[in-house]
Amino acid sequence: MSSNITLTGRLTAAPDVRFTAQGMPIAAFTIVTSRRVKDPNTSEWSDADTTYWDCKAFKQLAQNIADSLDKGVEVVATGRVVQESWEDKQTGAKRSKMAVLIDAIGPSLRGATARVTKAGSGQGQQAYQAARQQQGQASAEDPWASGTPGTQQPAGGGWGQQGQGGGQGGGYDDSPPF
After folding, report:
1. Taking the model in full, what pTM does it have?
2. Strands 25-38 and 74-87
3. The domain spanning residue 14 has which CATH number?
């Protein structure tokens, strides 16, 4: 049984990415969480309840984490708390620890900005590139061609197309198409 958790904290180091024998990436990293408290006597702020969370992510998420996050970045992460158990190779003693299997993670925008770039994912990216190649030079030469492969809409997104009725002059409609 596992419990869901949301963590807001900072990475203690750059994520460490390793690969399984089958080539699957696994990212391992630590998130430190704490809350800030103000001492009423001195009016000074300090950290309280500091906790270090060992985290793991797999597959494309692991690769995205390694490409996007670094030491000291404040993050918001959701995942499942699990107990990992193993036997100590030197002493033979049974050991265990709590860890978080990350489902989603991103930079906190409380004190930073971020620019999101969608990561390609195999077949979807390949289909997009194939459609772009089929579109060829037509879109470069035709300013009215669709900016997105596989759509029949003009680059304007369908706003003000002819024949939608109700508009003024030239048969164009200023109302949105929904």
Report:
1. 0.62
2. unpaired
3. 2.40.50.140
